[in-house]
Amino acid sequence: MDTPEQPQIYLITPPTIELSTFPAKLATVLDGAEIACIRLALAGNDEDSIARAADACREVAHARDVAIVISNHVLLAQRLGLDGVHLDDGARSVRAARKELGADAIVGSFCGASSHDGMTAGEHGADYVAFGPVGTATLGDGTRAEKDLFQWWSEMIEVPVVAEGGLTPELIGDLAPCTDFFGIGDEIWGDDDPLGALNRLLAAMP
């Protein structure tokens, strides 16, 4: 994932996907906005339902040359032809995932508000590190990732960084100078017009 001056959008799916409607919603968003990558953040461990959802979203994404990764399921990422994996356990699984998936796969790591976990993940081969929540959200233990973490990271560390969790227009305007990606999901999928909701958020970028 490249890191231009203005942050790119990293789209996060809802935890449950309605196969009859979600792929069309996803297509509308991808056709109307510049999306760098999609994360399948699916709840549960039912392999069959995860595979069906992943297949449907992968078709939409790859038809538009957008990379798609899955949260935590390293082996499924391979089997389903996805572009990589997003790990929720900080740096702990990065090395093993990289070994399993190979050098070309995307391996990302969610590190809460811990710069130490982020640096370790980068050392172990993560392509990006995500910090959050940046706003009011239920990610992790609720400890917020503050702006100074992103400022420090963007000045000191070369590994791309994602800001996610509870994003608002104000936070997007505030964090845009010091993050590479905004991880956007819950903020838009509850809206009748997810693309419109996304564009309202993006309008806050300086």
Characterise this structure:
The structure is a single chain. The mean pLDDT is 95. Helix 1 links the parallel strand 1 and strand 2. Helix content is 39%, strand content 18%. Helix 1 runs parallel beside helix 2. The protein is built from 9 helices and 8 strands. By secondary structure, it is an alpha/beta fold. An 8-stranded parallel β-barrel has the order 1-2-3-4-5-6-7-8, surrounded by 4 helices.
Q: What's the β-strand tally? A: 8
Structural class: alpha/beta
Low-confidence stretches: none
N-to-C series of helices and strands: EHEHEHEHEHEHEHEHH
Number of helices: 9
CA radius of gyration is 16 Å
- Tell me roughly what share of residues is in helical segments: 25-40%
Q: Largest sheet at a glance?
A: 8 strands, parallel, barrel
Q: Within the largest sheet, what's the order of strands?
A: 1-2-3-4-5-6-7-8
Q: Which descriptor suits the 3D outline?
A: globular
**Ends apart, CA distance between termini:** 21 Å
Provide the residue-averaged pLDDT. Answer: 95
Strand content: 15-25%
Multimer state = single chain
